[in-house]
């Protein structure tokens, strides 16, 4: 009887122990799997993904073609010039109007790691002054975003930044999107965009 029960539950044990699926969102060569919104510049240089303001100096987005609802995303960024950008999650885009939530990527003292809802409630979580020293301007930084159900957590260079729950976020679904803020003069480098589906 014990052998029978073991044989019955063994496949379930393998399913439960299966490793989390990892997805490399950026292949280091081209923009396969992504879609450009707007007229700003998105290109690959030396294995890095670059976002840069164009002559129109408007908002621009680069979004995954696939939707990701529950995930743990790690991405490295390096700000050059004005680094006002961000990583959107559970987002949908029409033209250059985006619906979703942004994890801020911005110059020092401008809430990198905070959560902003575009065309909605605005700031949901800003960063306290004592955490503004975690950002390393002009160097590579690692941003981690974990979203499961209505629970959102962000980390910058291994330090916790935001831990919040929100029913509206919990009900949404959409793509991952990188942003170029309007105003011009923006350039940010991105690399190692690795997503684990939860």
UniProtKB/TrEMBL annotation:
Question: Which SUPFAM superfamilies does the annotation name?
Answer: Concanavalin A-like lectins/glucanases (SSF49899)
Which of UniProt's keywords are assigned here? Signal
Name of one Pfam family that matches: 3keto-disac_hyd
Task: List residues of the 3-keto-alpha-glucoside-1,2-lyase/3-keto-2-hydroxy-glucal hydratase domain.
Answer: 23-194
Keyword Iron-sulfur in record? no
What Gene Ontology biological process does one annotation of this record name?
carbohydrate metabolic process
Coiled coil (UniProt feature): none
Task: Look up the signal peptide feature and give its range.
Answer: 1-17
Membrane-spanning segments? none
Q: Which Gene3D superfamilies match?
A: Exo-inulinase, domain 1
One GO MF annotation is: hydrolase activity, hydrolyzing O-glycosyl compounds
Kindly provide the name given to this protein in its UniProt entry.
Answer: 3-keto-alpha-glucoside-1,2-lyase/3-keto-2-hydroxy-glucal hydratase domain-containing protein
């Amino acid at each position: 009887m014990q052998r029978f029960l073991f044989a019955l539950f063994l496949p379930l044990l393998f399913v439960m122990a299966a490793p989390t699926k990892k997805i490399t969102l950026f292949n280091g060569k081209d923009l396969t799997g992504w879609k450009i919104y707007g007229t700003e510049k998105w290109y690959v240089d030396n294995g890095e993904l670059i976002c840069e303001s164009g002559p129109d100096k408007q908002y621009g987005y680069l979004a995954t073609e696939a939707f990701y609802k529950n995930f743990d995303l790690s991405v490295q960024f390096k700000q050059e010039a004005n680094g006002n950008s961000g990583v959107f999650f559970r987002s949908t885009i029409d033209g250059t109007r985006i619906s979703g939530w942004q994890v801020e990527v911005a110059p020092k003292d401008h809430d990198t790691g905070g959560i902003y809802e575009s065309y909605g409630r605005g700031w949901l979580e800003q960063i306290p002054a004592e955490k503004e020293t975690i950002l390393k301007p002009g160097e590579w930084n690692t941003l981690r975003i974990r979203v499961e159900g209505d629970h959102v957590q962000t980390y910058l260079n291994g330090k916790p930044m935001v831990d919040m729950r929100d029913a509206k976020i919990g009900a949404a679904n959409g793509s991952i999107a990188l942003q170029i803020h309007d105003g011009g003069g923006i350039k940010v480098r991105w690399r190692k965009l690795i997503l684990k589906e939860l």
